């Protein structure tokens, strides 16, 4: 059976996360239902990451096995037709080897967290960013983020429901950028690692906001990390500012072969 990789974009607002559930809508179920309308074998998806309820994605990757050897353009067009009116889109499709796994072949996952710092309520991007009304300072957040880079025991920033065998992870990047807006500022947190613990990014960002608003010092972040105690974590940020932005593989399944030498 041919195996296909799908790059999927979605708003997490109407879903209870990626993973299929018995009683609530999920992104996985929505895409699988669209596939079922095209393939009688009821195909299932394996995803690179199981995003939580309310979390968005611009670069989720999933794979599935189909009996029919679909033309890639027709497959993406048919899927997007059957995904309407859900806020889910297949933005790219590739045929991959049988040993490719969207989850286990991934060598890196990238997340983006967006915060808009302003007093007035959000209108156009409500539900797409975390609005923080208290003033945030970039420099102390960047200093605090430096304590988190590298190999650490991230027990403090790990959900009690996390099923990972070990809390030890390597954080390759935690970069914070500030952008001026007409009526405020936006802070973007770029986070990169091979894999993450459950709620790790939201826990890190929530604690960094404590630093940005002056409730914590940058060194308090180091102490929280070293405590290896969930109670030392700051408030966990809400899900709607978080995006799974990219998944990297040793060979990009979506790389287009150039027609020129």
Automatic annotation (TrEMBL):
Binding site for substrate: 111
Active site positions: 52 (nucleophile)
Keywords: Isomerase, tRNA processing
GO-annotated molecular function: tRNA pseudouridine(38-40) synthase activity
Location of the Pseudouridine synthase I TruA alpha/beta domain: 9-104, 144-250
Enzyme type, top EC level: isomerase
SUPFAM superfamilies xref list: Pseudouridine synthase (SSF55120)
Alphabetized InterPro entries for the sequence: PsdUridine_synth_cat_dom_sf, PsdUridine_synth_TruA, PsdUridine_synth_TruA_a/b_dom, PsdUridine_synth_TruA_C, TruA/RsuA/RluB/E/F_N
Keyword tRNA processing: yes
Pfam families listed in its UniProt record: PseudoU_synth_1
Catalytic activity: uridine(38/39/40) in tRNA = pseudouridine(38/39/40) in tRNA
Record-listed E.C. numbers: 5.4.99.12
Keyword Ion transport applies: no
Role according to the record: Formation of pseudouridine at positions 38, 39 and 40 in the anticodon stem and loop of transfer RNAs.
Subunit structure: Homodimer.
Record-stated family: Belongs to the tRNA pseudouridine synthase TruA family.
The name this protein goes by in its record: tRNA pseudouridine synthase A
Naturally occurring in which organism (per UniProt): Pseudohalocynthiibacter aestuariivivens
Gene, per the UniProt record: truA
